[in-house]
Amino acid sequence: MNLEERFLGCLIGLAVGDALGGPIEEIPGKPKPTAKRPLTEMIGGGPFNLKPGEYTDDASMALALAKTIITCKGYHPIHVAREYAKWERTLPSATGRTIQESMRRIRAGIPWDKASDNPYGNNYAGTGAAMRCAPIALLNHSRPEKLIEHTRKDAIITHRHPDCISSSIFINTFIAALLRADDPLIAKNYALRHINDNPALQKRYETLEHAGKPTKGVYDIVENSVHTLLTTTTFEEALTKSVNLAGDADTRGAVTGAIAGAHYGEKAIPLRWKQALVDHLGTPAYERIKRLAHDLYRTANT
Ligand SMILES: [Mg+2]
User: How far is the CA of 256 from the centre of ligand 1 (A)?
Assistant: First the structure.
């Protein structure tokens, strides 16, 4: 399989995972979604009353990041933060409060590297940085130092909690290893080496001892996504298993979709899922995301 096939798989997989999980996303304080499990089709509905195949904030923020990287021919946090602030205004469904607060501060003129220096950004190990970071792994798949520098800067725009920064670095170094066709277990060990400045988290991601049930925050997303890839044999099996753990199903689906897509490639993603993809206006999105991934491939490899 060639590298471009893995690029497409990563970005399209992210959107497919978000859209599959969206209808069963559980939100604290809201009634639990009632969709029949296991969920294997793009059914729509759920807490945000989604259209079948509609992706949510996770994929739309990742796509905004990919678009900015292509336009700027690289990662520039000032432009990215500005684009995120614009993106958040157009979002039909709510994103996390940590992102909301940083976006509010960016629009108020606070610089990108200070916006998340607030009680939410400092104290919550939320999922908002990890859910969107994959395009930076694609851009820098062959430049590990840049990959880490850009991933760190991107997390800091909204989530400066050390576990959020380390989790994004873990995911992106994992994706970079999968893009060069490393075995997932070797990719995991490679990724672990890049978070040795955070020993407690490194140990948690090494053992994955909490995987197999929904837990909380960014830990759930990383542990369960990696564990799922290691314990299944196809893209469809990985994504179905991950999403049906429920809890934060859309975000876990997005991250599982990105890593499984990088591993198995675009052709392994079921056509019925790809063709179902729509944005919040109901516009078919598969071809557009495919073009974006293709353009990102050219940006990263020229
Ligand atoms: Mg979401």
Answer: 14
Question: Angle 249-264/3-21 helices, nearest 10 degrees?
Answer: 160
Counting the structural domains of the chain, the total is 1
Going from the Cα of 57 to the center of ligand 1, the distance in angstroms, rounded, reads 5
Ligand 1: distance of its center to the CA of 16 in Å?
12
In a domain, 32, yes or no: no
Distance CA 123, CA 209 (A): 23
Task: Find the 48 Cα to ligand 1 centroid distance in Å.
Answer: 9
The rounded Å distance from CA 58 to ligand 1 centre is 5
**Structural domain of residue 186, as residue ranges?**
3-27+40-300
Q: Tell me, in angstroms, the distance from the centre of ligand 1 to residue 94's CA.
A: 8
Task: Give the tens place of pLDDT for each residue, 168-182.
Answer: 999 999 999 999 999
* φ/ψ of residue 169, rounded to 5: -65, -40
Q: How far is the CA of 116 from the centre of ligand 1 (A)?
A: 20
CATH number at residue 165: 1.10.4080.10
Look at residue 93 in the predicted model and tell me its pLDDT.
72
Indicate the pTM of the whole model: 0.97
Question: Measured in angstroms, how far is the CA atom of residue 18 from the centroid of ligand 1?
Answer: 7
Q: What is the pLDDT of residues 32-89, one digit of tens each?
A: 898 889 999 999 999 999 999 999 999 999 999 999 999 999 999 999 999 999 999 9
